[in-house]
């Protein structure tokens, strides 16, 4: 396995400390412990202590003290589903459902290359990280022949940003000629997909506690991969000791597709191919009946809930309250920015709460603290990292965010968690990943946002020209 890149941004003495005081804290621990005014001490890349009042006296090697007055500290947000490459195809097919949207965009996506993928990854990451994401995830499944090292370019972009990252190495082998949606030239062979996925895991996956880069095995969806790719992909992931990810139960069209092709619904089909289990998480899971939810709860199969994308594509409302009641691990996902043009996870806290209140449970569906849990600890559960991130507790990795809540947008809301979730998107004064600052005063520290804006615009225009000529 690859060596940890935890210190790729900055090498700090392990005992160097950052002290944050006078800050409201939502720990999102098992008891939902909160402090109206408390402290957090970060030592190296770990949280050393957290509690009410001022920090302990006599701390050595304090390199920075931060007055958190007017701020709320939370765990860093954890994104559980995304497609970075879509950053350069935003704003297209805006009035389509999922299948028509895919058919419209696949011919364009199938012409991406390494330079485009790197720029798009930078854009997607920059938007999330500046908005409080400390652990990002990308499900990349489009690998045109001769396009270069796409996985390596995505991982490089995440490393340069300083964010913790999971690459779900996707694949497709069911094209139009086999009854799938992707064009014939846009897919890999079964053997090629499995070999490339195994190579990516062996080259990049880090299984250590403080890993900055991990890799999951991630065939794209039931309608773009063969049954053999799902089965052998699951076997590969378990042989290598990594997690599994795919799309599931996103639309009524997918439900119909599975019944017509496999004679069963998506959940039963996934179970028949070895794709239910505590090492698996699915994107969307919108169209789930009681039996499906019970199966996910029984097997602890995770769900990446993507409320904005589900609304954008008119997919429906996922039954998140029922999933949580059944013990299903649920996190939040941005999804690709061709179906969620803002690309910001902190807005998904609010959207998850509001959209779920349109469902059967109405005002009792989710509250502010449940929404925050989905975006933090829930995401850590889904990615298999709940012992390391997702809550603010002594001994855990120092991935945390200070949200500024004393401005016009929030200052008249007394409860800081309500302000964060129900209110406008809050500015990020400080974001730490692995104990190192990656955002200060809503600006990224390790990359040039303006340069990324220019490069993503240029690459979007280049891709559009290539697709038009084809």
Automatic annotation (TrEMBL):
It comes from the Bacteria. Keywords: Hydrolase. GO terms for molecular function: 8-oxoguanine deaminase activity. It holds the Pfam family Amidohydro_1. SUPFAM superfamilies: Composite domain of metallo-dependent hydrolases, Metallo-dependent hydrolases. InterPro entries: Amidohydro-rel, Metal-dep_hydrolase_composite, Metal_Hydrolase, MTA/SAH_deaminase. Its EC number is 3.5.4.32. Residues 73-417 form the Amidohydrolase-related domain. This is 8-oxoguanine deaminase.
């Amino acid at each position: 396995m690859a060596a940890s890149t935890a210190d790729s941004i900055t090498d700090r003495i392990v005992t160097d400390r950052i002290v944050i005081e006078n800050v409201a804290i939502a720990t999102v621990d098992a008891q939902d412990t909160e402090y109206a005014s408390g402290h957090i001490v970060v030592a190296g890349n770990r949280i050393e202590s957290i509690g009410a009042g001022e920090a302990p006296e006599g701390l050595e090697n304090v390199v920075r003290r931060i007055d958190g007055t007017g701020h709320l500290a939370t765990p860093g947000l954890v994104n559980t589903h995304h497609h970075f490459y879509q950053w350069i195809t935003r704003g297209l097919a805006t009035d389509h459902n999922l299948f028509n949207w895919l058919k419209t965009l696949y011919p364009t996506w199938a012409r991406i290359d390494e330079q485009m993928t790197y720029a798009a990854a930078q854009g997607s990451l920059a938007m999330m990280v500046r908005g409080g994401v400390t652990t990002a995830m990308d499900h990349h499944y489009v690998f045109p022949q001769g396009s270069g090292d796409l996985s390596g370019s995505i991982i490089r972009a995440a490393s340069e940003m300083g964010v913790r990252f999971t690459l779900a190495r996707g694949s497709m082998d069911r094209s139009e000629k086999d009854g799938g949606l992707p064009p014939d030239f846009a897919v890999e062979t079964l053997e090629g997909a499995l070999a490339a996925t195994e190579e990516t895991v062996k080259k990049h996956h880090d299984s250590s506690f403080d890993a900055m880069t991990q890799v999951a095995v991630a065939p794209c969806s039931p309608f773009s991969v063969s049954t053999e790719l799902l089965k052998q992909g699951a076997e590969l992931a378990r042989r290598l000791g990594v997690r599994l990810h795919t799309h599931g139960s996103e639309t009524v069209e997918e439900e119909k597709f599975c019944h017509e092709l496999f004679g069963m619904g998506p959940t039963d089909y996934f179970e028949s191919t070895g794709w239910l289990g505590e090492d698996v998480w699915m994107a969307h899971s919108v169209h789930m009946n009681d039996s499906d939810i019970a199966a996910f709860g029984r097997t602890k199969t995770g769900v990446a809930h993507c409320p904005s994308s589900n609304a954008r594509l008119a997919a429906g409302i996922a039954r998140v309250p029922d999933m949580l009641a059944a013990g299903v691990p649920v996190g939040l996902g941005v999804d690709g920015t061709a179906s969620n043009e803002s690309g910001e996870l902190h807005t998904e806290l609010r959207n998850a709460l509001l959209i779920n209140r349109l469902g059967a449970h109405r005002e009792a569906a989710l509250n502010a603290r449940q929404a925050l849990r989905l975006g933090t600890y829930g995401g850590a559960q889904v990615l298999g990292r709940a012992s390391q991130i997702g809550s603010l507790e002594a001994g855990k990795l120092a991935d945390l965010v200070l949200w500024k809540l004393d401005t016009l947008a929030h200052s008249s809301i007394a409860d800081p968690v309500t302000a964060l979730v129900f209110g406008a998107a809050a500015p990020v004064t400080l974001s730490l990943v692995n104990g190192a600052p990656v955002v200060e005063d809503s600006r990224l520290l390790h990359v040039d946002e303006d340069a990324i804006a220019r490069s993503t615009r240029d690459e979007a225009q280049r891709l559009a020209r290539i697709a038009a000529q084809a």
